[in-house]
Structures are given as structure tokens and as C-alpha cells.
Amino acid sequence: MKPTSIQDLATMQDEIVKSGKNTWIKVGLSTCGIAAGAQETYFELRQQLRKAQIQVEVKRCGCAGKCAFEPLVEVAMEGMPTVTYKNVSKDMVSAIIEKHITGKQVIKEWAVPQVKDKQLRVVLRNCGVIDPDNIRDYIAAGGYQALAKVLLESSPEQVIADLKKSGLRGRGGAGFPTGLKWDITSKSQADEKYIVCNADEGDPGAYMDRGVLEGDPHAVLEGLVIGGYATGATKGFFYIRAEYPLAIERAEKAIKQARAQGFLGQNILGTDFSFDLEIRLGAGAFVCGEETALIASIEGKRGYPHPRPPYPSVKGVFDKPTCINNVETLANVSAIFAKGPEWFASIGLEKSTGTKVFAVTGKVANSGLVEVPMGTTIREIVYDIGGGAGGGKKVKAIQTGGPSGGVIPEEYFDTPVTYEELQKLGSIMGSGGMIVMDEDDSMVDIAKFYLGFCVDESCGKCAPCRIGGTQMLHLLEKIADGKGELADLGSLRKISRAMQKASLCGLGQTASNPVLSTLRYFENEYKDLIKA
Amino acid sequence: MDQEQLRKEVDEIVKPWEGKEGNLIMVLHQIQNRYSYVPRDISFEVAKRLNVPLARIYEVITFYNYFKLEAPGKNIVSVCLGTACYLKGAPKLIDEIEKQIGVKPGETTPDGQFHVQAVRCLGCCGLAPVITVGQKVYSAVKPEQVAGILAEYSEPATAAAAS
Predict the structure, then answer these.
(1) B chain contacts of residue A32, beta-carbon cutoff 8 Å
(2) CB proximity list for A386: less than 8 A, separation 6 or greater
(3) Tens digit of pLDDT for each residue in A331-358?
């Protein structure tokens, strides 16, 4: 029977939780885990347990965020502490079964060390915990109760008011207040409206959204349906990067399961609200993360951006009012309505509430997905959680915001992470990429890398971005080759300003940021190359 | 492929998307999944079937990196050029691949064995630098491992010619 009340869902939750066993093994099976060999480990575990006739359930889960330790295997045995083993290749399986399962002894040297750090999991609450392919696991974790509360007890106006109270800001990068975005869309009059989940994660070196979609797709879906109700959307689109086949597969499965349970489709949860979703795939164009380009792409066209206004909330997909939210934003929405806006607003700082997920990668000891309350300092993220550069090297700087962001040198690492503070330093929050660079890395080279990326990805529609980017890249190449002149630095700054002011969309307006910020903090590195 | 067979295959692909607004990119994805690129004769047929000008189809194919106009080699070697992989030495892997099989990203070996491409982030930055061959992922790759990885996929004749 399909649930039609909060009570129904709570009963389902109870039943599923009660039917669960206290002894189980869990293997993380997301892209990074599978790449490290988790699939082989999973099959080996099942096979060996079957052979030895040991009755222990082997479960699958998404990414726990500890990418450097993949494949991860978590073992829970009645009367023993739950232990996570790291880097478990299939050759290690027999030892784990023999010592831990049969012998009831923890293999300490293989266990992931338990450390107390500032991580707080709101968005990643279920990632690495539940089986993303099984809606029952999500319901057991309290899933879809937020949707039930919203549909059965709140008006769309109340939902928007609550979201505003939570202080949630868009996690795609710019930090626009989500409640306000929903409000504007809800007030646009049209026969049809759309809500879009932007899962076209294009920043190279970042994979927060992939982690969430592969680890907990229902959390995003639930947020999207709540958004549909609040904005008055009749239909939703999941716009996902084609380069993420596993995320697509899991989102497809989640949609089917949600439909079967009555959380999507006609008369959701027995109410008169109807809403359905369709997946549309990106095709490898960074510019399609920009909302007007994304809209063109959903319409099956070239991903060319358009000038705003009109904003998508007035004229979006197929010229209808459209609300576009990022994956992490929507996963926050389902948490906010489960636990209340006051709870969310109490996390983080006044103007930047809640948490932020970062993909901490590059020259860092423990690379992975990290979720911390807003206001946590960069130092706490890079050193306490990331473990520093590793290999005895010194961290020189981080880069946030990907190709649209900038570098932040080590001496500013005590800055709390908020939208405003990062902007003051000449970078941006961005979608959550945090690249750590050590003393061996050249800042000119990293600026060239990002600019090269933007030149590749420029759609070519407007001249400032198309020509400005190429000219800047020529100058950077000239400097890197030791043929630069001091006047080139002035030219770089001048072209940057022109691109910022005159480009049509966010890509061109921000493409020069990595160059400007490296010039701001590491001008000496440019000058050294010019002198040499 | 004869015309009738071709028409039948295009029909299968187009049918689920028929009448849906903005379906072109999704149809192209299905085509590429099936043929590993978008063959020209298929595009002609799709143009007729969806009633869109051929130019519109090519406009879309050439805009997006994901779509290919030519059959890629038998083994697709993707080198991740995301930021983490870049910092951890991916450009050296590209140089090494070129040294081993003589092709740059975007090219196919003359015998059609390998197609090399640079990709923007496969999303497993914790394992950087990463190379994939087909579906198989190789993590924390060092330049000296490249020859061995490629040899796993070389047919005996090619391997002999290379040595």
C-alpha cells in the first residue's frame, strides 16, 4: 500500500528498522570506490561468506567521502564496535572474515582511524550509510517524511517562508537565497512552470554532486518535489552530466521507486498535488552550468547563454518560468523540512547558514568529500581533516571555485569559510572544489591551467570572452616560456577587467579570476619567470 | 548497413522520445551509446524522422564535447585532466602515451587499436592521476606504468610492431 500520511511513513520506517539485523558488512560502491576495486571486493566477500556458510548480509552503500581510503568496508557485529577497514583489496577479504567475523578480533592496522574533527553531515547524512538503490533504506532513515509534512500540513507560501527562515543559499556557487528564488518563481503566472535540478557538475576537480547523487539520490529527489510544490511547478528536470553514468543510473532508479511509492506522479501521497520528473543529460559543455545555457541545452539546442533579464524565474525552459537549483541545495531542502528551519539556521554563521560540502583534492594527505559547518576555517579543513600536504611538503595555497574562483595563500587559512569572506579574499565559495597546492606547484601554471580550461569551454558567442581569453592565454604562455615582459602583467589586468565587465555570462565574467588572484598574491612568481 | 535496417534502428531509438519537446540531445545520446559515435547516415535519417534540419543536428553535435563524428578506436584511452590529476602529473602521462603509441589526445592510432582523449574530471580525484581504458580505471598512474597498461590491450601484432 502506498503511504498517504506521516503516520504511514513512520510505521513503514519502524518496520524496516526492526527487520534490520545488527550484524552486517557494507561496501562503498560509488565511482571512486569502484575505480579502486570495490566491486571485486564486494563479490569476493559474498563468495567467501557463502562458501564458508556464514550468514552475514553484505550491503552496498554510496561514498563515505574518504576517497583516499577506498575501497572501504564497514563491519558491524553484535557486541563489537563497528569498524571501517580501508583500502580493502580482494586479497584482504579472507583475513577480515577469519579474524573479524569468525575470530571477533578487530584488525587494528587496517582500520580507518577514528578522529574527532569538525565535520557535520547534513547533505551527506546518508552517503556511505544507506543503499542508494533501495528506497526502503531511505525511508528507514526518515526519508520522505519532510515531503509528507510539507504536502499535508503546509501551504506553498508557508514552505517558502520557512525556507527563507532557514537562510539557505544556493550551493552552486553564487549563493543566491533559495527561498527568494522559489518566491519569485512561485509568483510568476503561467500555465506551466518547471523546476530543474542542476547536476551538471563541471568544475574539474570537484565531485560533491556526484557523491550525493550516487550516495543518496532520494534526498535530492525529495528536495526537488518539495520545490515543485512550493514554486507551483508542474514538471521537474534532472539535468545530469553524461560523464556520470552511475549517478544517472541511480537517479533513474530512484525516480522509478519514488513513483511506485506515490512520492512522484499523480496525486502525490494521496493529495491533489501532481508532479513528475524527467532526466535530461548534459553532453560535456562547462558553460551549461550557467543557467541560461543550461536551459538551452534542456531544450535540445547548443548551450549558448542569453542575456538576463529576463531571468529564468520569469522565462526559462520552453519560455516558461523555471527555477534552477543545484544538487547540494536540494539535498539541504529535504533536511531542512525534516528537522525544521530553526535547526538549520542554528548551524553555521548568520549570513551563511548550514554546512558546505567540499571536495578536498590535490596535494593533500586525505583527499575526499568533507562537510563542515559554514564558518569553519580553511586551516581546520586542510590540516585537521585533510591532514596537510603529506610527504613532508608544505601547503602553499588552496584554490576554491574552480575556473571561476581564485587562490587563497596559506597566511589567510584562518579565514572562516563563508560566501562573503571568500569573496573578500578574491575567490568565491563556488560549488565546493578545494584544490590544495604545495610548495612544488607553480601559481602561474595553475592560472594557465584554469584559463586554458575556460578558453576551451568558451562557447564563442561573445567577443570579450572568446578573444579576451585567448589573448590572455597567449600572454601566460609567453610568460611561462620565459619570454614575458613586465608590461604583460598590465595587459593581463586590463584584459581581465574588460572580460569581467563586458562578457555575456558568468563563464566569461569570471574566467580571469584565477589569473587576477594569482597576480594579487603571487606576483613575484610571474616576475621571477619574466626575469629568468 | 542497408537503408531498411538503418531506418529500423533509428526508429527504435527515436520512438520513446517522439513528441517530447527538446528531445534532440537525448536522441543523440542514444545513438552514440549504440554506435559509439554519431554516423552521418544515421544523422540524415534522424533529421527526416524528427523533422529537424540536418544543420541543426550538426550544430548540436559539434558544440558538445561528448559527441563524436568519427568511429573512435577499439580501445578508448581517457586521461583525466581535472585539476587534481593535472597537479599530480597527468600531462606527463599524455606525453608518455604519445611516446608509446604516437598519438595525441583526440587522435586514433592508424591501426584503429587506440583512441586517446583528454577528459575533464572523471570525479575520482582521490585516486589522481587517473587513466581509463574502456570501463577499466587505473589510479595513481606513474608514467613508467603506461607502457604496461597499453600492452594489456594491444593485439599481438601491434605489440610486436611497437617493440
Answers:
(1) 123-124, 126-127
(2) A360, A364, A365, A366, A367, A370, A436
(3) 999 999 999 999 999 999 999 999 999 9
